[in-house]
Fold:
Amino acid sequence: MAAAALAEGLLVALPTETVYGLGARADHPHAIARVYATKGRPADHPLIVHVRDAHAMRSWAATVPDYAEALAEAGWPGPLTLVLSRTERAADFITGGQDTVAIRVPSHPVMQEVLDLLADLTGDPAIGIAAPSANRFGRVSPTTADHVVAELGELLDAQDVVLDGGPSSVGVESTIVDCTGERPVLLRPGHVSEADVVAITGLTVGTTSAVRAPGTLASHYSPRALVLIMDAEGLAARPSDDATTGVLALADIPTPAGHVRLSAPQTPEDYARVLYGSLREADALGLARIVAVPPPPDGVGAAIIDRLTRAAQE
Structure:
């Protein structure tokens, strides 16, 4: 049903390993316009095209450097997006008017099945699904189908579809790497770290890029509650009996008396999985603020720090 809806130009909220996406056929201007309108997303903010496999990438990307091939081989399917020079197929309504296109091969089995079925229905093995996070622009990304319904349910048409594929296993958006220059440039951190990119490509990572990428505005991923980032010592020094404050920190960091513990993840990977759900829980509880103690900046910790930093911007 979901693949048929996409083929007809309807919207489908889809599970991926990163977060849930609001999907539309990447070659359907009207459907893509509905994605932008439903999310309240600026028209110049590019979308990521999700495809079945690395072979399909060639239909969307005009030039694929050797190091990008290496990243695709090592990181796909998975939470890695590559930005490449575009073919004519990647229209302005997908790229935000840029001459580049962002491409990803997702690993979630439900998303993979939808891509396979859509390819069969359309007769196009390189068909793409544009699927930005299924939330209002700038708000907290959804990691369950219930989050999608709470966020966008009233904005979707009766014929649109919300697929429930369980909680997202990664929990933060994909790493985005600009692959249009001589060296890769990390545009957005994710589960695939900068160290991973260096190890895969054998290249140092560049520091400058003119590419606009999703999820890189100063303020993003924001709950209604005020987000404060502290270290463990700062958290321990907070006044007691503050029932209007939620705490998000690794399990070995104590909760001050009277505060509301939102989650106590054991590892940075667990932290990433519960991050957005915890921010949403704070809003559901009507808390005034969230004190977050981020994990170390290694691996996915860099992505968590990035998301918390943007969520804390007013």
Q: What stands out?
A: The chain has a mean pLDDT of 96. The longest strand covers residues 80-86.
